[in-house]
Amino acid sequence: MKEAAWSFVPRRIEAASSSAYPPKRGGPMSITNKQKKAFARWMQEHNVRSACPACGSESGWNMHESILGGLDLDLKNKQAKPSSFGCFGLVCKECQYTMLFAAAPILGK
Ligand SMILES: [Zn+2]
Q1: What are phi and psi of 31, to 5 degrees?
Q2: What's the 14 CA to ligand 1 centre distance in angstroms?
């Protein structure tokens, strides 16, 4: 069976007012060794596969140096606010595919 080719049409996608970004907040805090260890242990305990789901590479992952925050979007009012949701971000060393894991449950917060 022939795999379908990826096809994208680049376009401007507006989800929020641009004036609401970036949110005002303090500088990022680097992930501590303790947090890194807790994350690695979690990955092992939950049998998270280390092969990249996008390219199948086993060449490993780069970890973003801080917990990634997001924006909670209020689409109706076109506003964005800093979100309390935070993630660990892993980026495939081969294809740059990115996996996100919710940080709070992993850190027991
Ligand atoms: Zn990959």
Answers
A1: -70, 135
A2: 28
* Ligand 1 centroid – CA 5 distance (Å): 17
| Helix ranges, the chain (H) | 33-45, 103-107
97 vs 61: CA distance, rounded Å: 9
**97 CA distance to ligand 1 middle (Å):** 5
Tokens of 104: 């709070």
The rounded Å distance from CA 49 to ligand 1 centre is: 12
What per-residue confidence (pLDDT) applies to 77? Answer: 95
Indicate if the alpha-carbon torsion angle 8, 11, 15, 19 is positive or negative. Answer: positive
- What residue segments make up the domains of the chain, in order of their start? 29-107
- In this prediction, residue 11 has a pLDDT band, given cuts at 50, 70 and 90, of confident
